[in-house]
């Protein structure tokens, strides 16, 4: 399979990228990976139209190295949230950021799109409660206007499961979450997905 020329390959061929399909946008698939996300054409995945690089900062890498024995794999920024604001085209992107989740709002630098350096950061804030700390933890999210609803874990050990809502247009917003350590709300959940319907504004699906 690795040597088959008919198979399209992207990402790091030597390490686990923990790929996550984040959004289907017309003819494109937006996929989160280690330190970046890809915008791929659905037609054979043959064309990577945009690749945004976002590795952790030096301080995050230093702190991460004290928490894990596998720095090469764990101390990366695995992209786990990406949504587009239909009103202005801005992207909200959140990642694990070497066990210190972080979110950015990205804006296109110009109308003449440059796929090698396409975005500028217009807002940055903590992603705790929106993105997991570890890419192996299951999570899901749903956006409605300026509010992001996420179901994930908010601690290093993966025991603090929560459903969280935050206004992503206000950097000072602290959000609201489910009660911590109350098994009547959440008891070791595995978050499998989320959806919105005409009768139910938000539904979180749980796996076994």
UniProtKB/TrEMBL annotation:
Among the GO biological process terms of this entry, one is: positive regulation of cell migration
| Organism domain of life | Eukaryota
A GO CC term assigned to this protein in UniProt: plasma membrane
A single MF term (Gene Ontology):
chemorepellent activity
The record's annotation in Gene3D superfamilies points to: YVTN repeat-like/Quinoprotein amine dehydrogenase (2.130.10.10)
> Record's InterPro entries?
Semap_dom, Semap_dom_sf, Semaphorin, WD40/YVTN_repeat-like_dom_sf
Where would I find the Sema domain in this sequence? 1-208
Q: What is the designated name of this protein?
A: Sema domain-containing protein
Q: Which organism is it from?
A: Acrobeloides nanus
């Amino acid at each position: 399979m690795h040597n088959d020329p008919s198979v399209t390959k992207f990402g790091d061929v030597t390490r686990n990228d923990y790929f996550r399909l984040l959004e289907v946008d017309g003819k494109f698939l937006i996929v989160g990976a280690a330190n970046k996300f890809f915008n791929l054409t659905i037609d054979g995945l043959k064309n990577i139209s945009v690749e945004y690089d976002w590795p952790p900062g030096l301080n995050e890498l230093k702190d991460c190295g004290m928490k894990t024995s596998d720095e090469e794999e764990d101390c990366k920024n695995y992209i786990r949230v990406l949504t587009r604001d239909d009103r202005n085209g801005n992207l909200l992107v959140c990642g694990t950021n070497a066990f210190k989740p972080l979110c950015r709002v990205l804006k296109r630098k110009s109308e003449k799109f440059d796929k090698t350096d396409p975005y500028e950061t217009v807002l940055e804030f903590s992603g705790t409660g929106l993105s997991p700390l570890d890419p192996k933890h299951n999570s899901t999210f749903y956006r409605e206007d300026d509010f992001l609803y996420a179901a994930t874990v908010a601690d290093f050990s993966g025991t603090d499961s929560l459903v969280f809502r935050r206004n992503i247009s206000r950097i000072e917003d602290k959000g609201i979450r489910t009660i911590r350590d109350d098994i009547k709300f959440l008891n070791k959940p595995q978050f499998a997905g989320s959806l919105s319907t005409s009768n139910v504004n938000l539904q979180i699906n749980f796996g076994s």
